[in-house]
Amino acid sequence: MSKEQTMPAETPGKASEKSAGFFASLYDALNSIRLTVFLFIILGIVSIIGTIIEQGATPEKYAQIYSEGTIRLFNALGLFDMYHTPWFFGLLLLLMLNLIVCTIERLPRVWRFAKTIKPVLDEGDEKKHPFMESLQVMGAAEKVEQVFKKSARFSIWIVLLDVAAVALAVFFTMIYDLNVLEFISFIIIPLVYVALVNFKGKLVRTERDGAVHLFLNQWLISRFGVYITHVSILIIFAGAIVGNLFGFKGYIAIPEGRAENQMFVRQNKMIDTVSASVRDLFSGKKDAAADPHGRQNSEYKALPFTIRCDDFSISYYPDTNRPKDYTSDLVVLRNGKEEMRKTIEVNDPLIVDNIYFYQSNYGQTGRPGLVIFEVTSPNGDTREYRARPNGRFRIDGTTTDVEVVSFVPDFTIIQGRVAARSNELINPAVYLRATDGSRSVFTGWLLPKYPEHSVETGPYKFAFKDYWGWQYTGLQVAYDPGVEVVWIGCSLLVVGLMISFFHSHQRIWARVKGDHVVLSGSTHKNRMGFEKRFNDLVQLLKE
Amino acid sequence: MELFKISQSLFNVGGIAFVVATILYVIYLGPRNRAVGNAATGATVLGVLCLTVGLALRWIEAGLHHPPFTNLYETLLFFAWGIALVYAVIEFKYKIKIAGAFVLPISLAAMGIASLSPNKEIEPLVPALQSAWLHFHVAVSSVAYAAFVVAFAFSILYLLKDRLPMAVFGVCVAIVGWFSMSVTKLSVITEGIFRMRQMVEEHGKVYPVFYPGTKTAVEIEIPGVGSVFLITFGLYVLAMILYMLYLFTKQENLERFSLWAMIASFVAQSAALLLLLVRIKAIPQVSMQSNPYEMTMLFISWGTTLVFLIVHFNYPKFLEALPQKKLLDNLSYKTIMVAFPLMTLVIITGAIWANYAWGTYWSWDPKETWSLITWIVYALYLHARITIGWHGRRTAYISIIGFAVVLFTFLGVNIVLSGLHSYASG
Q1: Contact state of B388 with A37 under an 8 Å Cβ cutoff
Q2: Chain A contacts of B356, Cβ < 8 Å?
């Protein structure tokens, strides 16, 4: 029961028979499934440790939790940044080598096995297969062929499953405005899968020694699913390595109205050292990454273009303080010229030269911003004005001066005093004083959210537009040339797993001599399911 | 708003259906009455239908871009739905009603935690959660986790059928018993005092009270409950020690004593829970929502002990009722074979979302790491089974370890470890 494979028996220690040298035994070790199990256990335990000890926290935080000796020990072992230590990388590498060697050893065997599958059932062959049935059928050859064809028909469940998968993909695409690439991956994976598993193999009919042999060879691909899976894991790993060696991750904070091209680069010592040496190797010279300002090994890196933030804003769900979206209006400048602009939001980054800029966070610069108004005059003329808190502006064509006495981003009254509840523009309020010469026109709070409580502004209509230039937008910067490789690996991985686990290589033979039929069958997985299929087939023949 | 109310009452009906189904399945363990079994199946199907319609209505109410699995409350409901659905399909296909008593309680527990959740309203999505990939990710994860849970139940049944001594189960149940108390209410063991978080009501919602300027919740003592729980704790430890001694010495007297200790723990825990419920009703500052996880843990350990005792007293009959060992082993294996590709899809869709939201597809945050650990455990299971040829007990143990890891990935990480996923704990 445990081994349902009808594969030729494994011959362990093949390499060691040739030579018992160091490399041979190393190869043997890498070829062992026990190493895989061991590595799985070790990786599992180590990963658990990594989630219990907080990774990459500040030294102060560690000092609160652990004693000095413990910190020194953990630091020496790299447990504070465990997933980036050479030994963790070594474990992963060992797993990959194990996987490569196992695949090299086993794939050709499966290939050879696939090549030697006989389409005929010679006398006595049926005893080699786990399922056998011998029976008398009238008009056997035609009946068997007909029953076999019926058995090989598309399974309605698989068709329904596929339709469901494609429908789901279309549904997601319709309601979420997926981009083309996403749509393709959503559609392609089920389609590739459909194409692969519905390839059911054809019915082979052979006449030999006065007997008719019929052979149904289905889902042979299932035997290869495991290798598709393994190769895809290697692809993912390769993509991750490429990304770590040649990509970078950084952070850039741009105040509204400012432009920036220096980004703060996240340090990763082990990978930095390796990637620097690899870059040297490729470029043939040292310090290829040194920046023009001579800030070698500095934490800042210059981008090949400049990014300006025109505006950062938060939108809220109606009548709540729950943020709906964070958006930044970004402009890309190269050599002083505007190249492109995009309003980015969470989950929708800006992409320039394959460098991704993600909306990450925001904050206040500490500098006062500009209050921007739209003022409509009695004659219907609307104009935009801007002033700093404590600043003033004159309404065009009049002698009316408006002074912005005070600005509060989130207006509230605590114990009879005006106060800011938060630093967000949730309930902005401006205290205005308008004078015409020495005559006071109006004075009081303008509350854009609550016009009914706002001061009467005489003949003018004030619309508060924004408080601008006081916040910065924080952008996560990522350049990862390996990411597409990772996605290709992921798609293959899913397909490989589905092929190997949802299906099994099933073979059914029939040898028909006159009215005497000998049926034989074999499956490499899902014995229960195959048993049912085989018995159904026998029943059909008996009818 | 009408749809929301209808869906809410459908969840309630579904919850009651699961309670009924669980009770019926547990009764079915004993005298295996056909009508009882059919009624249990009926209740399960009713529960699944209620949850299906309820979740669909909630989705319609929230809008298409806001599927009903974006906060912990919804995710738990979805998880409960997934478990019951996967189980119902397998029951229908293989006609094995006996597993219901082991699967449905887990579904019920998920419903239980959900019902204790203080936030049941449809909340607007924070920007990071507005992503198709994330929604796909959560939907698939519920189904994958549910399948792993069902595989776990079959592994337990396999071990029972394989005549793994009841004493071994006894040790495990006793550990679950005292563990649930020591992780949730350490003060019970150290001081003999049971405390619960004080809650206030504001705008129809209840919130815990914190000491000003801190993140420490104000807790008040529930009089009398602590000492009863302390006795329960002691009895569980005693039962565990006695069962272990029995396993080493094989003295039959010891087995009897340990069974008595287990019955005593069950009685004590029932008394403690009853007293707790009475006190919660009497004290206005606390409610069932004060400590939802801890309450659930206590009820889970109580339910586990109950199932253990029922199986223990019906052991020969129960064994007879179980399907063949081979079938149980195979069902567990098959379920994992379906769940594993789904789990892979869960990790991948999570990575795609993370790449959109944070600019990196993998950042080793605790939730990610634990989902990888889950994946590794089941990869180990599959390699051990397919390549090495392990089966039976050894693979059943891996499946049980896998279940523990799944539970921790799903809930434990949010409660115990902090990380980027912390918004989901609200």
Answers
A1: yes
A2: 347-349, 358
Q: What's the rounded Cα separation, in Å, for the pair B82 and B75?
A: 10
pLDDT of B11 higher than 70: yes
pLDDT tens for residues A33-62?
Answer: 889 999 999 999 999 888 888 887 777 778
| Chain B contact probe: residue of A85, A497, A525 with most B CBs at under 10 A | A497
Q: Specify whether B113 is located in the same domain as B178.
A: no
The Cα B30–Cα B23 span in angstroms is: 11
φ, ψ dihedrals at A306, nearest 5°:
-115, 145
User: Quick one: CA dihedral A166, A167, A172, A175, positive or negative?
Assistant: positive
pLDDT, tens only, A386-423: 888 888 888 887 888 888 888 888 888 877 788 887 77
Same domain, B312 and B332: no
For B101-152, what is each residue's pLDDT tens digit? 888 888 988 888 888 777 777 777 777 677 778 888 888 888 899 899 999 9
Question: Is the domain of B169 the same as that of B318?
Answer: yes
Helix axes of A33-52 and A86-115: crossing angle, nearest 10 degrees: 150
Enter the tokens of residue B325.
């060992």
Query: How close does chain A come to B15, measured CA to CA in Å?
Result: 28
Q: Domain range for residue B409?
A: 155-162+324-426
By Cβ distance, the residue of A44, A323, A360 closest to B126 is A323
What value of ipTM does the predicted structure carry? Answer: 0.84
Same domain for B205 and B245? yes
User: Is residue B149 in some structural domain?
Assistant: no
B415 within some domain: yes
Does B277 lie in the same domain as B235?
yes
Residues of chain B in contact with residue A48, where contact means CB-CB under 8 angstroms, are 373
